[in-house]
Amino acid sequence: MILEVAPLQIRAGQSAKFELAFAHAQQIIEAMPGYLSHSLQRCIERDNEYILLVEWDTLAAHEIGFRGSPQYQQWKALLHHFYEPMPRVSHYAAVPFAETLTSTR
Q1: Cα separation of 28 and 9, whole Å?
Q2: Which residues span the domain enclosing 68?
Q3: Distance CA 67, CA 90 (A)
Q4: Which string of DSSP letters, residue by residue, matches 7-69?
Protein backbone atom coordinates (compact mmCIF):
# COMPACT_ATOMS: atom_id res chain seq x y z
CA MET A 1 0.00 0.00 0.00
CA ILE A 2 1.20 3.51 -0.86
CA LEU A 3 0.00 6.62 0.96
CA GLU A 4 -0.31 9.78 -1.12
CA VAL A 5 -0.04 12.92 1.02
CA ALA A 6 -1.11 16.24 -0.45
CA PRO A 7 -1.06 19.37 1.73
CA LEU A 8 -3.60 21.75 0.19
CA GLN A 9 -3.72 25.52 0.59
CA ILE A 10 -7.02 26.88 -0.63
CA ARG A 11 -7.48 30.45 -1.87
CA ALA A 12 -8.82 32.74 0.86
CA GLY A 13 -12.59 32.68 1.16
CA GLN A 14 -12.94 29.58 -1.04
CA SER A 15 -13.01 26.78 1.57
CA ALA A 16 -16.77 26.17 1.43
CA LYS A 17 -16.76 26.06 -2.38
CA PHE A 18 -13.72 23.77 -2.33
CA GLU A 19 -15.43 21.33 0.06
CA LEU A 20 -18.52 21.24 -2.15
CA ALA A 21 -16.40 20.59 -5.26
CA PHE A 22 -14.43 17.92 -3.41
CA ALA A 23 -17.66 16.11 -2.54
CA HIS A 24 -18.17 15.63 -6.29
CA ALA A 25 -14.50 15.02 -7.13
CA GLN A 26 -14.10 12.23 -4.59
CA GLN A 27 -16.50 10.10 -6.63
CA ILE A 28 -13.98 10.25 -9.48
CA ILE A 29 -11.03 9.03 -7.44
CA GLU A 30 -13.05 6.35 -5.66
CA ALA A 31 -13.80 4.71 -9.01
CA MET A 32 -10.16 4.47 -10.12
CA PRO A 33 -8.35 1.11 -10.34
CA GLY A 34 -5.89 0.74 -7.47
CA TYR A 35 -7.70 3.21 -5.20
CA LEU A 36 -8.15 1.95 -1.63
CA SER A 37 -9.36 4.87 0.51
CA HIS A 38 -9.02 8.58 1.18
CA SER A 39 -9.44 11.18 3.88
CA LEU A 40 -9.65 14.97 3.62
CA GLN A 41 -8.74 16.78 6.84
CA ARG A 42 -9.23 20.50 7.50
CA CYS A 43 -6.70 22.37 9.64
CA ILE A 44 -8.17 23.60 12.93
CA GLU A 45 -5.89 26.63 13.24
CA ARG A 46 -6.03 27.81 9.61
CA ASP A 47 -9.32 27.24 7.82
CA ASN A 48 -7.84 27.44 4.32
CA GLU A 49 -5.43 24.53 4.87
CA TYR A 50 -6.25 20.87 4.29
CA ILE A 51 -4.43 17.61 3.95
CA LEU A 52 -5.56 14.93 1.52
CA LEU A 53 -4.52 11.35 2.26
CA VAL A 54 -5.14 8.72 -0.40
CA GLU A 55 -4.23 5.04 -0.14
CA TRP A 56 -3.33 3.30 -3.42
CA ASP A 57 -2.38 -0.30 -4.18
CA THR A 58 0.77 0.89 -5.93
CA LEU A 59 2.56 4.10 -6.86
CA ALA A 60 1.77 3.36 -10.51
CA ALA A 61 -1.96 3.25 -9.73
CA HIS A 62 -1.72 6.92 -8.78
CA GLU A 63 1.06 8.29 -10.96
CA ILE A 64 0.23 6.43 -14.19
CA GLY A 65 -3.30 5.07 -13.80
CA PHE A 66 -5.05 8.05 -12.22
CA ARG A 67 -2.90 10.93 -13.45
CA GLY A 68 -2.82 9.50 -16.96
CA SER A 69 -6.58 9.04 -17.16
CA PRO A 70 -9.33 11.20 -18.67
CA GLN A 71 -10.91 11.19 -15.20
CA TYR A 72 -7.90 13.10 -13.88
CA GLN A 73 -8.77 15.95 -16.25
CA GLN A 74 -12.21 16.10 -14.62
CA TRP A 75 -10.57 16.07 -11.15
CA LYS A 76 -8.30 18.95 -12.17
CA ALA A 77 -11.21 20.97 -13.58
CA LEU A 78 -13.15 20.57 -10.33
CA LEU A 79 -10.33 21.27 -7.86
CA HIS A 80 -7.09 22.74 -9.16
CA HIS A 81 -8.33 26.34 -9.44
CA PHE A 82 -8.80 26.39 -5.64
CA TYR A 83 -5.11 25.75 -4.86
CA GLU A 84 -2.67 28.54 -4.08
CA PRO A 85 0.04 27.37 -4.56
CA MET A 86 -0.28 24.01 -6.31
CA PRO A 87 0.36 21.23 -3.78
CA ARG A 88 3.55 19.22 -3.64
CA VAL A 89 2.38 15.60 -3.46
CA SER A 90 4.51 12.97 -1.73
CA HIS A 91 4.15 9.20 -1.47
CA TYR A 92 4.92 7.03 1.56
CA ALA A 93 5.25 3.35 2.36
CA ALA A 94 4.77 1.90 5.85
CA VAL A 95 7.80 1.04 7.93
CA PRO A 96 6.98 -2.57 8.91
CA PHE A 97 8.46 -2.57 12.42
CA ALA A 98 6.86 0.79 13.27
CA GLU A 99 3.23 -0.28 12.94
CA THR A 100 1.03 0.99 15.77
CA LEU A 101 -0.04 -1.69 18.21
CA THR A 102 -3.20 -1.44 20.28
CA SER A 103 -2.35 -0.40 23.80
CA THR A 104 -4.27 -1.19 27.00
CA ARG A 105 -3.02 1.89 28.83
Answers
A1: 21
A2: 2-86
A3: 14
A4: EEEBPTT-HHHHHHHHHHHHHHHHTSTTEEEEEEEE-SS-TTEEEEEEEESSHHIIIIIITTS
Residues 95, 105: Cα–Cα separation, whole Å: 24
> Residue 68's domain is classified under what CATH number?
3.30.70.100
How, if at all, do strands 2-9 and 49-56 pair?
antiparallel
pLDDT surpassing 70 at residue 66: yes
This prediction's pTM: 0.90
Residue 41: closest CA among 32, 31, 54: 54
37-65 confidence digits (pLDDT tens): 999 999 999 999 999 999 999 999 999 99
Banded pLDDT at 100 (limits 50, 70, 90):
low
pLDDT of residue 98: 75
| 99 in a structural domain | no
